[in-house]
Design brief:
149 residues; alpha/beta; Nucleotidyltransferase, domain 5; six-stranded mixed sheet
Length: 149
Amino acid sequence: MGRRFRCGLDPGREKFGLAICGGSELIFSAIIPVSSLDVTARCLKSGDFSEIAHLGIEGAPPRGAAAISVFLGNGTGFRLFKDELEERGVPCLVVDEAMTTLEGRALYWRLHPPRGLWRLLPLSLRVPPRAVDDMAAWAILMRASSEGR
């Protein structure tokens, strides 16, 4: 029997962030082209993430997920995502995603603390060396949890 996981999605026009957590622990994150939304929906429905594992950035995809709860940020193009997911049998709850990109930056630095002189820069001046859509998706999940969802 698989575990229960939560998935956060940060929608965008060309790509979207995905974060999967078990409890509050980040298990897997990825940045996925919008053209692969159908594949991602299939993965969310089945609990088998092997088709998107190669897009992973942090962690490894969970194996044997019994159930996945999906939380979708209400940002750019979220309606397309909601319709596509629900059409494929993946229900999702919409979460306010205001400021989650900034929260995602902070989460990135929590996972990858700066070294050397970079430590002296204030967080607001640090720019991660990669896109943080997946971290924004994690922030969406954290927000949903704090709202008791």
